Amino acid sequence: MSKLKEKLQAKIEGHRPRIQKLLKDHGQVVIDRVTIEQAIGGARDVRCLVSDISYLDPMEGIRFRGKTIPETFDALPKPPGCDYPYVEAFWYFVLTGEVPTQEEVWEVMEDFRERSQVPGYVFDTLRAMARDSHPMTLFSSAILSMQRESVFVKRYNAGMRKTEYWDPMYEDSMNLLAKLPEIAAYIYRMKYKNDTPIPPDKALDIGANFSHMMGIAKPYDDVARMYFILHSDHEVGNVSAHAVHLVASTLSDAYYAFSAGLNGLAGPLHGLANQEVLAWIQDVMRQMGGKLPTRDQMKKFLWDTLNSGRVIPGYGHAVLRITDPRYTAQMEFCKKHLPDDPMFQLTNLIYKVAPGVLREHGKAKNPWPNVDSQSGVIQWYYGVTEFDFYTVLFGVGRAFGTLANITWDRGLGYPLERPKSVTTEMLEQWAVEGGRKTP
Ligand code: NMX
Ligand code: MLT
Description:
The protein has 439 residues and is mostly helical. It is 59% helix and 2% strand. It has helices spanning 3-26, 36-40, 69-75, 87-96, 102-114, 120-128, 135-145, 151-158, 166-192, 206-214, 220-230, 239-248, 254-265, 273-287, 295-307, 325-337, 342-361, 372-381, 390-411, 424-433, and strands at 54-57, 61-64. A two-stranded antiparallel ribbon has the order 1-2. 44% of the residues are buried. The model has no long low-confidence stretch (mean pLDDT 97). Nitromethyldethia coenzyme A is lined by residues 44, 269-271, 273, 306, 311-318, 363-366, 370-372.
């Protein structure tokens, strides 16, 4: 057993009694209430999920295992000469809650390397699909095609105790993570670069290997590290993480569950917003003939979008009530690497104008930018101008958080998720009665 897996086992076994005690001694303690608005309105702010991988405070933003984004970047080991940590180190960290040593990172790298061979039929599947399929359709299908590899299914069918479920879920997660960057880069090169996939260089870490397989020079390796870490997790209520958690709660394996999560990520109100942002920015630039708009012109573009019934992509959030610190982290990168880039300047101008317009518009509860309004600008700068690919990059990152979550879910024995629905008539009755009186 690898040291990471041994440590994870000890952590899970050490944590289980806490969950058992909470359930046995305090199971009836009330931690939230649900209003009619929340029942109709997408369960916003209802506290009914548990995860220790990350927590999202509306006024602070994400913390991974208790650390803010800058603290996470500072704490984890980095490849020599690089500004961002090994993605492998981040995986160790979210899985165990501990910062790995350099040796522990190397061991994880080696483990991934041994699991990284993508089965040939995955490429056959991708090639059999219509070339104009959206990259997220290709990505999700490639993952689903590998479901036959699931260790969880084999062990489940052979018979295993509930306390062992985490072990094959971890194996499936490791096997899947080891292959995702190559599959993503393959889709990119097959679809957009005249079908010229670049074979992996297995000596490299995830960030450097991804940059190599995309065919993009340094510092794109750091872009990949930053990008995958920033997009990894956003507590467990967001649509992609929640979908993965929900599907896996049926004891579906990691392949089924992660593919489902990607299908949620592919919606324009979620991960696809990064593609929408770039399309929108490009439209503004086209209309301006490449010149930076004035504040007044920018205001007009924003109002035209709102008045046509569309949302401002990359702005607003279901939980956050501040500028997303993932936006800020990427802005810092841009200030260092592409301060004069016209699209970065346009993004900054939008940041100055859009919150005021959204406030005046009076609908969005959060007028500030989210992760998606800055991410595409960086990709574009390094030559990834095919913006319908951006959500795939989000998806690779999201795998690290969601797969850590479902491994822990099985470790802690979380049950099938099945909330209760009610009818409109019931809501109308409880509205008159001033709350639900009947059981
Ligand atoms: N532009 C215009 N209107 C907006 C925006 C926006 N950026 N954000 C929210 N609103 C509207 C929203 O459509 C809703 O209108 P209505 O009452 O007519 O249905 C109203 O404001 C209230 O919505 P909120 O409660 O503020 O937001 P909610 O929690 O429902 O949704 C988002 C959150 C993120 C879906 C929403 O802010 C949005 O559509 N943003 C633009 C798309 C986007 O950037 N998505 C990416 C989110 C991050 N990610 O990667 O997943
Ligand atoms: C995410 O990263 O999942 C998005 O910001 C959406 C969310 O948290 O709801």
